[in-house]
Amino acid sequence: MLKGSPVSWRCAAVLIAVFSLFAWPAAAGEVGYSAIVMDVRGQAFVTHAGVRKAVDLGRPLYPGDSVETADGAALTVTYLGSGLEESWAGGAKFSVEKNGSRPAPARVVQRERIILPRISSSQTGSSTNKGLSFQEDMEVGGLSNTRIIEDRPVFRWTGDPFVKQYRIKLFSFLDSKLLWQKTTRQTELAYPPDGPPLEPGGRYEWIVEAVINGVRASEKRSCFSLPPSPELEALRKELQAQRMQLEAKPGDHASRLRHILFLEEHQLYDEALIQYDLLLGRGGPSESLMSRQMQLVRLRQAACQAD
Q: How many Å apart are CA 115 and CA 118, to the nearest integer?
């Protein structure tokens, strides 16, 4: 990671984790969860408040929880406060505490301490239509309530068999200046090389309009932004390094989850959703991860979020 860069002071030494839609919310006066499951192979179980459940990838663990691993299983747990990453083999039993497990496992690695940010809450969506009897809600496939690091993004949206033409408009969010527009019969359109450059630190609004017989029948408004210049360059370098690591070890679930949390910290939600799909595909079903993923899906479908 880059030392002294805008990335490093915010995140290079920080692993981000926040899962707000878990099955076991903290009761009044209860201490919040202290650890997160970063990887699980085979079967493992946790007993929380007298209820025993299977452990899945991304599951939070609370002080006082009792965890056991089945024979042949492997479990990786990272503690938020201490940054300790513990590796447990099969046939183990341990209790979760605030900064580590008791007893401690044979293999413990010191990672950076975890902090807990929060994803912006969703608002009502901003699709509108003229009352025609076709698809009522247009949805976009990205570039909505997210930051990006590409200066030539691809706009994507859901199509409808009754619509033969779409019109895309791109505006500067601050002054509503029209920067670019294009009409297409496809459901995706790349921002052209000769379009006005998207500036680091800039925020943009784009509109996709469904056009029938020359009349705008429906539209969807979405917003995205680019990080400021110094942070943007640092992010590009750091993400390139992380991607190379994941390409070298595509089955390393813990590294991919750290990558997702890094993306979420910097609000690169489109890429985070792609990585969630990859992790769920390789790691198997996980209620904890799918709950987190759905928060990002709802955020994408929402109206433009305030800064």
A: 10
* Entry pTM: 0.82
The length of the chain is: 307
Contacts of 69 (CB under 8 A, 6+ apart): 42, 43, 44, 75, 88, 89, 90, 91, 92, 93
Band (112; pLDDT cuts 50, 70, 90): confident
pLDDT in tens, 32-54: 899 999 999 999 999 999 999 99
């790349």: which residue's tokens? 190
Measure Cα distances from 76 to 56, 61, 109, 218 in Å.
11, 12, 11, 48
Secondary structure percentages of the chain, helix, strand, coil, to 5: 25, 30, 45
Q: Which run of H or E residues covers position 279?
A: helix 269-283
Is-cis flag, bond preceding 63, omega within 30?
no
Residue 141 has a CB neighbour count (10 Å cut-off) of 15
Q: For residues 239 and 149, is the Cβ–Cβ distance under 8 A? A: yes
